[in-house]
Design brief:
The chain is mostly helical and about 400 residues long. It has 18 helices and five strands. The two termini are about 20 Å apart. It binds tryptophan and iron/sulfur cluster. The site of tryptophan has 13 residues, from β1, α8 and β4.
């Protein structure tokens, strides 16, 4: 049986769209590096998701997959502390996606905001495809197959986690109602022992009759601590508590990653599509050139013209990288024309160099040993696949497909 605690599991994925930049590092990657020590983490390359929009450029996918994995490793995602894998190495994701498609109303997918938005934004592409409509459902399968309770994502992905919850709820509602659910649940309550069983029944009543949220949480904590009932009974009692069927697929929560404040070299948001990025593996000279070329407050046309940091992306960098005394030096020096823009950029060049030097160093090892990188992914994918298979057994059983 699948003895996992969804609250301890975190899963996230990224489409392989090319080299990662400082914005990714300060937003997503630093967060992953932290989470891997706090949860059981699964991080994967969503290569099938990349094909939903880039189906006509299959030749770039492979290179992007390995580049991205190297970026993760270089940033400190550690295969000893997390499971790193590639989506297409775990074909069970596709099976679950297909099975979930049986119970997913079209309207749910059509209403996901990213569906229309992306079609608008990528006008030159025909995204009126079956695969693209199913994008969020494939993502649901990614999440549900690991019973992940937490999904670190940016704001643009929150609606995908929401639909995942709805799909899980619908699945549990339809397939969690085994024949004799009520009787099986009552029998499971007895197995908890007199005292715990009585308390469970009281709390369940308080929740179901008065909507007492605290009682629900207490009962959930009580169930979690039960040692002498099986996992199947536990899932049954979690569902019985809330008045649904047995909980087979856990409902995940988004762990919102704050939007990156990293400005691009031109002052717009740092983004590959604006070609205004510093890649996390950029070489020393490249970093220096890029920072020195950064846009500044246009009113500082001459060295003697005073400026306003609020109108300058270099200042936004100081907000991220500099201590308060350096920040004061910038504020005062810019407004009084006491310092020049090149002076002002020097501490930024240094701070970025300092941050990226160890990352580049780690990357070097992996760049020179592609087999090492591949093996990390092969091993991670095996671990992921074992976990996915356990869930699929339960799903097949629930959907009447256990006769193989
Ligand atoms: N759609 C996500 C993105 O574009 C990538 C992704 C795919 C994902 N499957 C996932 C993220 C599962 C979190 C969980 O960023
Ligand atoms: Fe920007 Fe610094 Fe130049 Fe002021 S001095 S405009 S903050 S780079």
């Amino acid at each position: 049986m699948n003895t996992i605690d969804p609250q301890q599991r975190v899963l996230s994925g990224m489409r392989p769209t090319g080299r990662l930049h400082l914005g990714h590092y300060h937003g997503v990657l630093e967060n992953w590096v932290k989470l891997q020590h706090e949860y059981q983490c699964f991080f994967f390359v969503a290569d099938w998701h990349a094909l939903t929009t880039h189906y006509d450029t299959p030749e770039v996918i492979e290179a992007n997959v390995w580049e991205m994995v190297i970026d993760w490793l270089a940033a400190g995602v550690d295969p000893q502390s997390s499971t790193m894998f590639v989506q297409s190495y775990v074909p069970e994701h596709a099976e679950l996606h297909m099975l979930l498609s049986m119970i997913t109303p079209l309207g749910w997918l059509e209403r996901v905001p990213s569906y229309k938005d992306q079609q608008e934004q990528l006008k030159e592409k025909d995204l009126a495809t079956y695969g693209f409509l199913g994008y969020p459902l494939l993502q649901s399968a990614d999440i549900l197959i690991y019973k992940a309770g937490g999904v670190p994502v940016g704001a643009d992905q929150v609606s995908h986690v929401e639909i995942t919850r709805e799909v899980a709820r619908r699945f549990n509602h339809i397939y969690g109602r085994e024949p004799g659910f009520e009787e099986n649940s009552q029998a499971a309550v007895k197995k908890m022992g007199k005292k715990a069983g009585k308390l469970y029944n009281q709390l369940r009543k308080a929740y179901q009759e008065q909507g007492d949220q605290e009682a629900l949480e207490k009962a959930q904590a009580l169930l979690k601590d039960q040692q002498n009932i099986s996992v199947g009974d536990k899932e049954r009692l979690f569902g019985y508590l809330e008045g649904s069927g047995r909980i087979i697929l856990a409902e995940p929560q988004a762990l919102l990653t704050p939007a990156s404040k990293m400005p691009g070299l031109d002052g717009r948001k740092m983004s590959k599509s604006y070609s205004n990025v510093i890649d996390i593996r950029d070489k020393t000279e490249v970093i220096e050139t890029k920072v020195l070329k950064m846009q500044t407050d246009p009113s500082r046309g001459r060295r003697t013209d005073p400026g306003d940091p609020e109108k300058c992306p270099v200042w936004q960098m100081h907000e991220i990288y500099s201590d308060s005394s350096t920040q004061e030096w910038v504020q005062e020096g810019c407004r009084s024309a006491g310092i020049g823009c090149v002076d002002c950029k020097r501490p930024i060049v240094e701070a970025v160099q300092k941050e990226l030097a160890p990352i580049r160093e780690r990357a070097k090892n992996y760049e020179s040993e592609p087999d090492l990188v591949k093996n990390i992914i092969i091993e991670g994918s095996e671990v992921a696949r074992d976990a996915a298979k356990l869930t699929m057994q339960e799903v097949r059983q629930a959907m009447g497909l256990a006769y193989r």
